[in-house]
Ring hydroxylating alpha subunit (Catalytic domain) (Halobellus clavatus), 455 residues
Amino acid sequence: MSKPRNFDESDNISEIIEQTGAEIETGRYPLAITNNRDLYELERRRIFGRAWIYLGHVSEFAEPGDYARRYIGEDPFIVTRDETGDLHAFLDSCMHRGAQFCTAENGNTSHFRCPYHGWTYKNDGSLQGMPHMAEAYQDLDEEEISLEEAELDTYQGLVFGRIAEEGPDLEAYLGDFTWYLDVLFGTTEAGMTVVGEPHRWESDHDWKISADNFSGDSYHVLTTHQAGLETENLARGPWEELDDFPAASYLACTDRHSMGYYLSADADTYMGYPDEIADHLDDDLTAEQRELFGRSVFHFGTVFPNMSIIHGIQSGGWGGPWACIRKWNPRGPGTTETTSWWLIPREFADDESFLEDSHRGWESLSPGGAFESDDLTIWEGISESSGAVTHELRDTHGNMQQGIGAMTDEVEPIDDPLHGPAEVTSKGLYFDERNSRTMLRSWYELMREDGEGSA
Ligand code: FES
Ligand SMILES: [Fe+2]
């Protein structure tokens, strides 16, 4: 049995954080980091206050005036495109008394009028005016008042925001993972476009659990989704056409982010897209990126902290190909609001039959889909039990040791430009948890006092 922790309320949280950092390379971690109320409050400040957080896709803000409510941690932001075409993310909090000035989820407007006393802002965040300005205020300089604005940048059409004014720029934060984002979102000349409005649903799980699951956990599929496997739906459809599938499975981990993917030997697989996709490939892709995309069956990954991706062929009767972006919005300790976007290459936006297949693929991972309910039940159970005081008092540890040293000899490092700049291993089938260790290291680097990971 593990040695009991010396419980001291004042420094217990820092101790858990430091212990997590010290133990990552051993593949063990304190289960008490999940659904921990005190850690959650620190996560809001040290992770969601410091990291670049996914806010949406540029296609959702195509016209001046387009806006949507999006979150950085629990903070409500309004992403807007102003009249000159620039994107912004403003905290939804009026500079008079802090009222929420935006009462819709999305729309198009040139101005926002606060419903409390009527202060009005342009969609570039500047104050336009207020009722009875001359009578109410003598010395107010409205030029000095503007909405609180997050840092904002985009990569491959993905819009990110950051609360901290200092830190690495977006490209540096994404690091080598940009190579993979090019393949996933920059494959065609016209880029990707979001179709419809994102789905949203709330569940009782810690945001870290789903971010970890999408970061490369193929291992759970055999058990969690056993019913799907037993109906043989996963074995039917496009996947059964692939000679060597699913033997060719890989894991790519960069400093902060990670993804798993399946490849076929067939260079014209293209994630199941119609053959015409080859006519639209972006010239900026390198030969290796093209080949990787050509042989791709399915990719899934997590950009730390809470953006996940799934892109590829769906098998069986479930349709596809499709690309989905997930965002795990923390909404309180042990509570997550998931936002799920469906994206397709613009070139196929008017192809009805493609859209129908793709939509079925996307829906397979909605709350009513074949897989989501399997996962949600498990994730909620992890959250409830990980919040147990028992874990904290007894210093219980979880395990993410697959792929460390002699734990398995199935893991082979791949040194081949086809697989990009990350540290890549072939998992045989399911045997590496470096994705989970990568995510936990990112968590630790931001959660430590000096937040070195953000500097
Ligand atoms: S709080 Fe917005 S106008 Fe008063
Ligand atoms: Fe799953």
